[in-house]
Amino acid sequence: MSENVVLVTYDSLRADHCGFMGYDRDTTPALDRLAEDGIVFENAVASGVPTIASMTSVMTGEHSLASPEIGFNTEQREQVTSRPTVAELLSEAGYSTGALSPNPPASSYFGFDDGFDWFEDFLAEDEGVVERAWNRIFRSSIEGGGLSTYVRLAKNVATKDEILRPWADFYDEILAWRERVEEPYFLWVLLLEPHHPWMPPADYQEWSSRSDKYRAFRQYYEMFTGGWTPDFDDATHDRLVNLYDDSIRYGDEFLAQLQSDLSEDEPTFVVHADHGEEFGEHGRYGHQPHLTEELIHVPLVVGKPDGSVVGGVSEAETGVVSDPVELRQIAPTIADLAGVSHPFEVPSLLADRDGGAGGGRPWVTSKVFAEGERRAAVRSRSGKYLADGDREALYDLGSAAGEQANRVDESPEGQAAFRDALSRHVATEQEKRAVRSVREEVSES
After folding, report:
1. CA distance 57 to 64
2. 294-320 pLDDT, tens digit each
3. Which of 80, 262, 296, 279 is nearest to 184 (CA)?
């Protein structure tokens, strides 16, 4: 098919703050329009939290393999650089490939530039004394350094870098890349607008005030230094949510602008979030490595801005897919849209579907590693099983109580079914890893 494909990743955008997912605020008008005629995956689940775990899966079609014993950053970097990525496959097939990611956990430092002819992440080159010194601070910070993290954050505040860089600052670079490349192309852009600290431009502050932006810095400091479990009062909570929603609205304007500027190319857009954000629902703010719905339930839409049907999908199959899907299915989806053969073992989001109802797998797994323990969640349409160390939980997401009521003692049959699904998933992943290891040893011998 050789379609132009644009992948837009919103950092920290939770599904229930999007208009097309039922939110009562007009936060995502451009995404809502794309959803009207496209395909909405209403139970899309991030394969991991935070960004590096999620985006590793998006690009490689595999779960992040990081473990506490080896180190998260070390192994995730190895996975991105040693596994075929969707960008590499499309580049080898003749696609022009470009990407822009101002977020270091999804940067060239971790190998996300593999397969991209153009990759802008704003990281400094080691060309001078100042640049080398800064890169040492950056590397120490990204690997978990204490003081270096504060130095890096101070520099970002002073220069509006990384998470404080608004999309308007780099938008022209995207258009300049498009002007100098041939079709077909694959473009990936990661946007940080929904990521804290939320600093929406004044023209986009519908629910927050200008003073809210600066008053909130105290709360950001409390979250950063207090383990993300601050006891905010209702007024502070509302202020943060208002800033978050205004930032989402500003980030959505990027999508509207890009759709307009690329309209003649008729690209297919794949729009998603890497993970969500917590606002005190479980005593936490931010997006630490947990698996609550606020963090793993994310928006995911595939469509064309002009309303035409996505390649390979009949008009009857557009609409809402209710069965749960994983973000790691994005990689084979993009490959299929491009008509490129691929080695990804998970199915495309567009495969095996039945009239929009979704014919995909009923069990979807998300997992993270934190504090020396593995946390894993298994999702069905309305049920969720959580294994967190020695703790097990079973939730009915369709009930009013949701994740506030652990029903594991009420449904031993449900617990057993979900536990079995997780065991089979772990066994399959371990088998795949063992087979791959043997293949690599044979190829190197």
Report:
1. 6
2. 999 999 999 999 888 786 665 556 689
3. 262
How confident is the model at residue 360, as a pLDDT?
43
Of the two residues 159 and 100, the one the predictor is more confident about is 100
Instruction: Domains for the chain: give ranges and CATH numbers.
Output: 5-122+161-361 (3.40.720.10), 380-445 (no CATH)
Q: Is the pLDDT of residue 131 over 70?
A: no
Q: What is the pLDDT averaged over residues 35-45?
A: 94
**Contact assessment for residue 306 and residue 263, using Cβ atoms and an 8 Å cutoff:** yes
Residue 79 makes CB contacts below 8 A (sequence gap 6+) with 56, 60, 62, 64, 65, 66
pLDDT tens figures, 333-365: 999 999 999 999 889 998 865 433 333 455 777
pTM: 0.89
Pairs from 403-410 (Cβ < 8 Å, separation ≥ 24): 403/281, 403/282, 403/292, 403/293
pLDDT band (50, 70, 90) for residue 152: very low
pLDDT > 90? residue 33: yes
Give the side-chain half-sphere CA count within 13 A for 124.
15
Order the strands of the 44-45 sheet from edge to edge.
Answer: 297-298, 44-45, 325-326
